[in-house]
């Protein structure tokens, strides 16, 4: 492996405290008060309804808020906070509104009105017509829309949501009447921390004994969130094994039958039964609480309604699904062209070459200009790579330095006020932060920095960093408390829309590390700087699945791990898993080129990359399905099997698209344990059939990982090729795995629906229109099937071990009906 690397160049900016310009170190993490551990706290809680009025699709309620002050009691050397109510009160304005038939919005502020709070996250939200009825009966107020009802107890205040089956799916948790300490968490109202001077808007709801919580973004720990507290504050995580996160999303899904989206980018803590085991709670810094409850049975029902609030995922260009090759960093035109030639020489399919941090005159001093000495005639280089089937990706970041050679971009940003600054107006740090809340700065970034590169032929911009916008800075359009987390979304948006305007919607793409709610509108994202060990491989998978359940459908890791070197075995296992992700990029500190890991690694990795390209019709069809059905590419087992108790915490395997179950090898000893749910499963590589539900444990050969096709699955495949669409006219193979029953496969790319009816004596496959240039493969039925009939006429077939193949001839003139008997 190559070891001649300039570590000074690579580590630039990671530990230079002198760049701060002062003698203190600022930690980019908020500190939240904890009732049982903090002092000098008080609360203002909703107590009773004073009055209400009907508004469009809901009600505006004026409630009495009572102040609760901290009080201590002593018992055998211990002091405990019990809190006591005060005589003085305040008024809380609470708005409850139906957004659509399954979504209810609850907002609260002190005073007599609730701000509109049309944040950037919900800029695409539309309020859909819902007939709402409001009635008061005894101590309860009923707000009914469609088949959902919000029931509010007037005194003491409590809100619950009841579904069409009269089941309570969401219920607020108030004063704990069954505990000596009635307030371990702050219920619906406000918490005041007199130590910091901060105010927090709070909500709490019951957490059931058998309830499971998922989501909240890409946190790389366990998939099931119960029993933990999360500070949703994006940061440069410098790894994938800690509580830190690049992509927190203020949205979670409960198995109780609801999802919650908190409409904020401010400091936010989500406690999923950590402080008190029988309740979830949220704390939002500031004077406004604004959240949405989406009713639905599981993520499959809830995610489409989350997208109605925050925007639907954009499609990705087909070429982006091919392999990306990269490291930190190719430093010259010669090095880029050499890697491109070697990929073809070693017969490894590849579509994208990424140039990372060192294409400028000064490494890491991003001025959006190629160094002409190391990258001469760069447009000629780009054109030549395009001719060979390659796209080009370029790294950049929004933190602009004034270098020793390159000063123009920095000076221009300072002169025109395009950078955020501290309240006194100076830069404070040695680099400028592009202020994406400033429309003029956005136009400058897009028109002067990004689009000229796209006009040279660059295909995609790597939107690196974006997690560290200082909350104490002054921004043109928002205050810093809102801007820190939102920065990722605005940064994603600016780069994506520049690409969309210049290259067109079908070719628009970014490669981003940071994200916030709504970032699914601007694909694609990768998992950040993973370590080069099996623990980081496993954590990357957990992050992928959690982010998918949080509404981000397209994702990649740094295949091979980012930090430093890893051995051939880790590299092979990471490549094997990486080929079963929506996007696949080899990237890290040192070489990530397969030939640098030995002959065995080269062979195995080549085989899996070629397999990925054969599977491109399946992968692309599932990507198109994101738009059509709102179903993600990486599906945690609980997504597809929400009622199977075996999968509630299972985050070491997943469904890749609709029909492929993938269990990556996550241990150095190659031991892998996986679970096959109920139904018939077929080994993708050997055609072995396994009846679920069953747990399996095996030692995987170095050239295999467990991949299974689920019962009645249909896998479209194409030919091997060097790059996406190198071959466009080819017979589409559809590999069918019949079991029992009826299933359908919608081929979005070619515009037909294939239906398979599998019975005891025959299998009938039909399409909704005539489809030619197609081959149907039936697996595990070779010796059983005697006759194949196409539109009433017997058809000759090819038998291959445990499968048979029937090709639809060009002479076919009617709609296709294949019968296997």
Task: Walk me through what this model shows.
The chain has about 800 residues and is of the alpha+beta class. Among the domains are: about 60 residues, Sandwich (Immunoglobulin-like); about 90 residues, Golgi alpha-mannosidase II (Immunoglobulin-like). It has 12 helices and 49 strands. It has a 13-stranded antiparallel β-sheet with strand order 14-16-17-20-6-5-2-1-12-13-19-18-15. The protein has a 7-stranded parallel β-sheet with strand order 28-27-23-22-21-32-31. The protein starts with 6 loop residues before the first helix and ends with a strand. The model has no long low-confidence stretch (mean pLDDT about 95).
CATH superfamily of the domain at 731-820: Golgi alpha-mannosidase II
User: How many beta strands in the DSSP annotation?
Assistant: 49
Count of DSSP-assigned helices: 12
Largest sheet data: 13 strands, antiparallel
Shape: globular
Mean pLDDT: 94
Spans of at least 5 consecutive residues with low confidence: none
Q: Write out the strand line-up for the largest beta sheet, numbering strands in chain order.
A: 14-16-17-20-6-5-2-1-12-13-19-18-15
CATH class of the domain at 731-820 equals: Mainly Beta
Helical content class: 10-25%
Quaternary structure type: single chain
Radius of gyration: 28 Å
Measured by DSSP, the beta-strand proportion falls in 25-35%
CATH T-level fold name of the domain at 731-820: Immunoglobulin-like
Distance between the termini: 55 Å
SSE class: alpha+beta
The CATH architecture of the domain at 731-820 would be Sandwich
